[in-house]
């Protein structure tokens, strides 16, 4: 939503007024199309760079507003979370050195942001999902204090009538409930823009849909969320669910998700496309839109179509159709929303060039792709790419083709042809498409993250491994090499200061618990089988109520019949606990003073984990 001043559509009068403006915009759009007013001779590209802010401990920082003020540049703007910002690049004509010029501007803007960030002891990171985000960073205190985000959050929560659900299953599984849409803030992308010829709209848009899966597979860079190894591009599932207005009771009906790939091939004109959007998705918000687009058009001015753009800003297609005005002429462009941020600006510009090249290099045999390819195959390709990355196979031209084969044999040649057709400098083409080829033959960002985290997890607790991983990503990005040249994380990239070591970084969260009415004999066996010396005891609400230690049960080893009792009869009820935010130094001190070997970690009464002398 580009409009900052928005309001929830509530009264019937406001709804009628807004819908009238929306219909007026659609009529104006149709008139402009019929009169041939849209720019056709020039094709432009552009991009939006979202990035993460991290503090000295490599965790999300909430200083986005302070940093934005310090940068003081209109190219930068806010995102929904206080640990993200966005930089908007200037559009360029698709020809010559446009990609290297865009790259120079991107590096310049990021350098400006990094300089100001360093003054606030912050760092900037390019990644699809920041590895160190956890549940603490999804609280509304981390939401950017701008009204449009608050309004959007309230609308989605009201429409659902229940907490938002997040369930993603990959190698690991995550299943969370949350009371806000801040899951969306976990996502950062590098959104590419490509201007379209309105006369070839359906053909071009459908081609963008058809190639999305194979393009995404090699660009994937977001496999980890909260320490869980999920999809190779987990942003696809995460963003879809984070702003889903459909309550779970409606999951089997025909209502569309507001974030999605689509349900069918596009047909007709851009007007038909926008009409379908208005039909399928209700309008939520309004703003200062008191303009008559038809009157503006009749007066010789090109209207901004504010109501239509506001509606379009609440529908998050992975290939989103956007309207704009450049040099007094209207145009439409595709906003590619599935490309992730990072790992480096080299990789991002290469991703953009690859996508643009394939878009412009479409062979004649793939004209009218909707007549030659089943839409569900194209959609299947997209979600397979998100799940499996370069391990995916794709339905293409009637065959099931391995990812590497399809990209090397068909997509790369298409990209070269398309870019040369647009007279892009061969030096730039070879440089950036060479990055793509090296990545196809090597590994992409997601695979590097997965392999690095698995390696780090052999010798480090999860939280510590994620911080080291984040530090290593930043270190490699600073060197400027593309992802295919990165070495795996080694473990020494971040060594925390003693005062920065917190209990939450080293506690065990994968622990065996029991309930107070469970059999004591069974718990003794569990402790023997698993070689554990401490079992936290919880009640039916999963509140911590006791602790059973090896010392408490060893006297029963020779007389197991005496353990035919409930745990509550022998557990320790007077507990010494700690919190996740306690320093390791303090936790050590408590254990020494109390002569104990473990501390249950709690927030209120809820058990969060356990830390033992072995962990220290």
Report on this model:
This protein is of the alpha+beta class and 616 residues long. It is 40% helix and 17% strand. Strands 2, 3, 4, 5, 6, 9, 15 and 16 form an eight-stranded antiparallel sheet that branches. Strand 10 (224-225) and strand 11 form a beta hairpin. It starts with 5 loop residues before the first strand and ends with a strand.
How would a crystallographer describe the biggest sheet? 8 strands, antiparallel
- Shape descriptor: globular
Radius of gyration: 27 Å
Mean pLDDT: 92
Distance between the termini: 48 Å
pLDDT < 50 stretches = 249-254
The gist of it:
The protein is of the alpha+beta class.
Q: Which short descriptors sum up this protein?
A:
616 residues; alpha+beta; 8-stranded antiparallel beta sheet; 19 helices
Structural topology:
Layout: E1 6-8, H1 12-34, E2 44-54, H2 64-71, E3 76-78, E4 84-88, E5 92-93, H3 98-119, E6 123-125, H4 147-160, E7 164-169, E8 173-178, E9 190-196, H5 201-219, E10 224-225, E11 228-229, H6 235-242, E12 259-260, H7 270-280, E13 285-287, H8 293-298, H9 306-312, E14 316-317, E15 319-326, E16 329-336, H10 345-360, H11 375-388, E17 393-396, E18 399-402, H12 403-421, H13 426-441, H14 445-457, H15 462-479, H16 503-506, E19 514-515, H17 520-530, E20 534-538, E21 544-549, H18 550-553, H19 584-594, E22 598-603, E23 606-612
Parallel strand pairs: 12-14, 19-20
Antiparallel strand pairs: 1-13, 2-4, 2-5, 2-6, 2-9, 3-4, 7-8, 9-16, 10-11, 15-16, 17-18, 20-21, 22-23
């Amino acid at each position: 939503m580009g409009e900052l001043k928005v309001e929830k559509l509530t009264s019937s009068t406001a709804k009628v007024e807004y819908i009238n403006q929306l219909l007026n915009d659609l009529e104006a759009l149709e008139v402009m199309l019929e009169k041939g007013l849209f720019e056709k001779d020039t094709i432009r590209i552009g991009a939006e760079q979202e990035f993460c802010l991290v503090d000295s401990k490599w965790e999300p920082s909430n200083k986005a507003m302070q940093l934005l003020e310090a940068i003081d540049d209109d190219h930068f703007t806010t995102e929904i979370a206080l640990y993200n910002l966005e930089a908007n690049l200037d559009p360029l004509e698709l020809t010559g050195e446009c990609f290297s010029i865009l790259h120079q501007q991107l590096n310049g803007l990021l350098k400006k942001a990094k300089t100001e960030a360093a003054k606030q002891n912050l760092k900037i990171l390019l990644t699809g999902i920041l590895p160190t985000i956890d549940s603490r960073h999804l609280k509304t205190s981390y939401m950017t204090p701008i009204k449009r985000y608050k309004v959007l959050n309230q609308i989605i929560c009201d429409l659902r009538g229940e907490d938002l659900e997040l369930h993603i299953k990959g190698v690991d599984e995550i299943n969370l409930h949350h009371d806000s849409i801040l899951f969306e803030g976990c996502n950062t992308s590098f959104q590419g823009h490509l201007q379209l010829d309105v006369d070839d709209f359906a053909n071009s848009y459908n081609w963008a849909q058809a190639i999305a899966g194979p393009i995404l597979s090699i660009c994937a860079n977001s496999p980890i969320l909260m320490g869980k190894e999920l999809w190779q591009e987990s942003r696809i599932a995460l963003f879809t669910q984070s702003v889903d207005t459909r309550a779970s009771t409606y999951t089997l009906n025909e209502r569309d998700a507001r974030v999605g790939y689509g349900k069918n091939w596009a047909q007709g004109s851009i007007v038909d496309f926008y009409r379908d959007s208005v039909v399928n998705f209700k309008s939520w918000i309004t703003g200062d839109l008191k303009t008559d687009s038809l009157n503006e058009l009749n007066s010789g001015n090109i209207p901004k179509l504010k109501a239509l753009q506001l509606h379009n800003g609440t529908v998050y297609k992975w290939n989103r159709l956007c309207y704009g005005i450049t040099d007094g002429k209207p145009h439409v462009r595709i906003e590619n929303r599935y490309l992730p941020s990072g790992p480096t600006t080299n990789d991002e510009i290469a991703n953009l060039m690859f996508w643009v090249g394939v878009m412009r290099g479409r062979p004649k045999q793939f004209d009218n792709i909707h007549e030659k390819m089943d839409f569900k195959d194209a959609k299947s390709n997209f979600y397979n790419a998100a799940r499996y990355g370069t391990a995916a196979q794709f339905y293409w031209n009637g065959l099931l083709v391995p990812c590497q084969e399809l990209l090397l044999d068909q997509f790369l040649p298409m990209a070269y042809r398309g870019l040369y057709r647009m007279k892009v400098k061969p030096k730039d083409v070879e440089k950036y498409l060479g990055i793509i080829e090296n990545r196809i033959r090597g590994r992409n960002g997601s695979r590097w993250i997965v392999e690095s985290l698995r390696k780090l997890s052999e010798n480090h607790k999860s939280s510590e491994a994620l911080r080291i991983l984040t530090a290593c990503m930043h270190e490699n990005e600073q060197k400027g090499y593309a992802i295919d040249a990165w070495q795996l994380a080694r473990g020494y990239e971040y060594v925390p200061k003693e005062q920065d070591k917190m209990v939450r970084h080293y506690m065990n969260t994968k622990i065996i618990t029991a309930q107070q009415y469970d059999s004591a004999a069974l718990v003794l066996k569990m402790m023997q089988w698993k070689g554990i010396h401490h079992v936290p005891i919880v009640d039916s609400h999963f509140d911590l109520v006791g602790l059973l230690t090896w010392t408490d049960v060893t006297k029963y080893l020779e007389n197991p019949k005496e353990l035919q009792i409930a745990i509550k009869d022998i557990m320790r009820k007077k507990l010494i606990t700690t919190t996740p935010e306690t320093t390791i130094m303090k936790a050590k001190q408590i254990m020494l003073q109390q002569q104990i070997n473990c501390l249950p970690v709690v927030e209120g009464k809820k058990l969060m984990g356990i830390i033992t002398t072995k962990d220290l």
